[in-house]
Amino acid sequence: MRPVFSTCFLVAFPIACSDAIAAPFAVPHVDLVSIDARTTKTALKTTGAVAVRVPGLAQASATAFEGLADCLEGDGQEALLVDGTRRRTIAARGAGFDSVCFDDEASNVLRRAAFDAVQAVAVALDGGGTTPLRGDAADYDWRGVVDKGRHLEHVHAYYGPSKGEALEAHVDEGVLVAMVAGEGGSLHITLPGGASHELRWDVDSAVLILAGDSSRYLGNARPAPHSLSLALSDNEARPWYGLMVLPPDDALLDGERFDERRARRTSTITIGRSRSLTAVDPAATCQTQDGKDGIFCWLQCLEVDCAYGAVCLDDNDQVVPEDTHCEGHSFDNCSPVCVDRSGSLSNSSRSREGGFCRGSGQDMHMDGFRSAFEESTPPCINLYVADWTLSSVGKYVGGMFGAFFVGLLVECTSFVRKYVHRRRRDMSWARMGLVFLHFVQSVLGYLAMFAAMTYSIELFAAVCLGATTGYALLHLDDAPAASTDPCCQAQDDLDASKPIPTRVTADCCGDVEAS
């Protein structure tokens, strides 16, 4: 048996490990000349990314990027990224680039392709589910934002050597971001489940469109957190072009004009680094099973009630990524914390999330037995099904009564089985009744086991107390059963009127010697 097990383990382990490595994410593609509105809307709403094929883009980007890195060595602003990569940047705000490095016909074709792609996506997104963006002067739909909002363009050249992740996961501030990239790097996106995947799209012929942070005020799009990893040697460089569409200046975001909001935020943001505590991180947003807003924290969707968003922090006030465990594998070590209007932790918002329990529910505690009434707030428990979340004192007490009666019914069913067995007299209905009662007791036994395996102290105690009460009421005069396991007792109940074999075998309990 051991060699067979070892062989199975050695075969299964590499397969399990390979599945743990996130596969690349293939971005849905649409054509600019006949854009598929349904595909576009679905892609932006679910993952926040879509690629638009534009005729002539391949030739234009190849020509525009040729010699760009060498030209930017003598132009633009330089920044040193976290992995040691140098980046030089030139920018344009609504007009042309004030640089000879990106000022030829091919560059203009590339810029027009990016704008056409953004405009086509905005048209596709307008429709059902869109929430107009309120402004001081007017309300804006997707097309209105693209037409009236600011357009920021950037051209980057990344210079090696590169050592890995050059830009950590972040969400761009705009509504939509269009980009055309050269070779030498990979973009990773954080999908709704929290896992990071490398993006794969037709780099030569398609403009990649990502939803930005401000898209959540319009609906029909999910802000797409993304990071950049580079693989450049000492003498290599990677060109990149991007167009970001910002909301109109008078657009109201959380009651604040966008131009005032942007001025406040950009005064504290360092080039090349993503913002950390400036409202809910869209990478971690989710909805609880009750449809309420929450964020991912310790792999759970936890409800938050914060005016300006929240982050998942550990005891040292360090942000915990939504796809990782907290230190100590316990909810005691991390929880959502509100931020104030400026995106900082304030004294009034430092208190942890309250409530009877945390999260949308799990089928068992992952760190041993827990009490729902302990000083710290444990995660909520789902009893049997996802809709039975014991998220309040009343529901939890009801769950305890339910667990108690399940344990009690196991013993009651056992009593009825014995009664029918004694009076069966080879009647066919009695035989069918015994078979049915065996099934009922098996179901109840496993339900009692599942309640105990939640690792909730109260539910475990309720099951045991129910079974003990049933035994005290109905079985004190009987010989003790061969097993106290409720899932096995349906097989172990013996009657004095039936000859007892010298040896009794129970499927789930092993061999039991008869006395």
TrEMBL record:
Listed Pfam families: Ctr
UniProt membrane topology term: Multi-pass membrane protein
Residues annotated as signal peptide: 1-22
Keywords assigned: Membrane, Signal, Transmembrane, Transmembrane helix
The keyword Transmembrane helix appears for this protein: yes
Entry GO terms, CC: plasma membrane
Molecular-function GO terms, alphabetical: copper ion transmembrane transporter activity
InterPro entries: Cop_transporter
Segments traversing the membrane: 396-416, 428-449
Subcellular location: Membrane
Name used for this protein in its record: Copper transporter
Lineage: Eukaryota, Sar, Stramenopiles, Ochrophyta, Pelagophyceae
